[in-house]
UniProtKB/TrEMBL annotation:
Pfam families per UniProt: APP1_cat
Protein's recorded name: Phosphatidate phosphatase APP1
InterPro entries documented for this protein: APP1_cat (IPR019236), Mg2+_PAP (IPR052935)
Domain (Phosphatidate phosphatase APP1 catalytic): residue spans on this chain: 156-307
Organism of this sequence: Corynebacterium guangdongense
Domain of life: Bacteria
Span of the signal peptide: none
Amino acid sequence: MGISDIVRAVERRINARGVRRKTEAGWAPEITPFRGYGTSNRVHVIGRVLMQDPEFDDEAPIEVDEDGNPRTQVEQVSTQAQRGYRQFFTIQVGDHPVTVHAGRHTVRTRTNGNGYFDVLVEDHGLETGWQEVIVEAEGAETVTAEVLITADDAPIGIVSDIDDTIMVTNLPRALHAAYNSWFVHTNQRKPVEGMAEFYTRLLEENPGAPVFYLSTGAWNTYETLCTFIEEHNFPKGPLLLTDWGPTPTGLFRSGQEHKKVQLRNLFIDYPNTEWILIGDNGQHDPLTYADAIQEHPDRVKGVAIRELTPTEHVLSHGTTGSLVDVERTDREGTPSISAPDGHALLDEYRKVIR
C-alpha cells in the first residue's frame, strides 16, 4: 500500500467520523449544485453533498453597530474569513443517494467518496439555452441546478483559464485556493484589463458559443469565482474545477492532467464544435493547449495566451520569465496569439484568428 492509499484511507475514516458526529449535533446534508452542461442528446448535472449546520447562515449580511454603521474593516475581514473557513474545511457526504430530474427523465445515483455527483442524463428533452433541473438527496432540501444546453451544431466554443487569465492573482500559487476560499467576497480581486471586452467580442462574432472556465482551482471556490465572473461582466458559463486531496496515484492532484482530461471530455461531448482556448503563460497552459492541438488538430480553432508581467511570473513559479515560450506561428494549422492584456489580444485576434 502506497502513501497516498494510506492518506486516503485516513481521510475517509476522519470524514466518516465527522459525518456521524455532525448528524448527532443536528447537522443535515445539503446539496451544492454546480452549473451543468450538455447538448440535446445528453446533459451533465454536477454537484456535491456536504454536511451543513442549520444555524449557520452563509448569506447573512455583515452586522452593523447600534448606530447602523458597518463594522470595522478588520471585523468584516474576520467575518469573511470565518465564512470562507466553513467553505474550505467541509464534511462531505459520500455514498449518499441523489436523484436528478432533468426534462423528461429521472436518474438516481450516489455521491462518490468526496461527496460529488456527476449525472449524465440521456435524451432529456430540454431546450437550448440555460435551463433548470431538480436535484434531490436523502435528508436534504430539494434544489434546482442550472444547466447550459448548447445547440448540437454550435460551430465554436470557448475554454478559458481563470487565475492570471481573467483574474489578477498577485499571489503565490500555493495560496490561491486558500485565499479564494477564506475571503469569499471578491471586491479585492481585479480582472485582467480588457479581457471581458475580448470575450464580449468573441461572443458577438460567435453567438451561442458555450463558454467554459477550466481551472485547477478547488470546487470549494466555486461560488466565489461565479460571483467574480458576474461582477466583472465575463460571460456566464459552467466551471470545470478540481478536488483537493490525494489520488490513487499520488498525494496531490495534477492540475495539468486535470485540464487535459477536461479538454478531451469537451471534444467528446461536443463533436461538432471547434474551440478557442484561452490561458496564460504563467504555468502550463501553452503546453496543455499545444498537446490538445497535436492530438486533435481539427478541434481547436485558435489559442490566445495572456502574457504575465515579470512580477506575476515570480509569484507564479519563482522566475521573472515564462517557463514556456508561446508560439506565435501556426501549429498544425492552428493560429496562436499572445499579448499582455485583453485589449492587445483583441488586436491580435482581429489580425490572425477569424
